[in-house]
Write a structure and sequence with these properties.
Layout (H helix, E strand, L loop, with lengths): L1 H27 L4 H13 L13
């Protein structure tokens, strides 16, 4: 009974640590969207028909 309690406590602590690290990285990470958006837009502009491009506005 004691070993199961210790294992559950350590599992809870590990899950809490992982959740805290993931949330911390989500809040502190800067998105690289302008570079990715520029690359995707230029790639979509070079297609002949523009069909299937997720960012096409036509």
């Amino acid at each position: 009974m004691k070993s199961e309690t210790v294992m559950l406590g350590s599992l809870f602590a590990a899950c809490l640590l992982v959740c805290a690290l993931v949330l911390g990285s989500m809040f502190t990470l800067r998105p690289a969207a302008p570079h990715a958006l520029a690359a995707t837009t230029s790639a979509c502009a070079t297609t002949a028909s523009g069909n299937g491009c997720p960012l096409s506005r036509s």
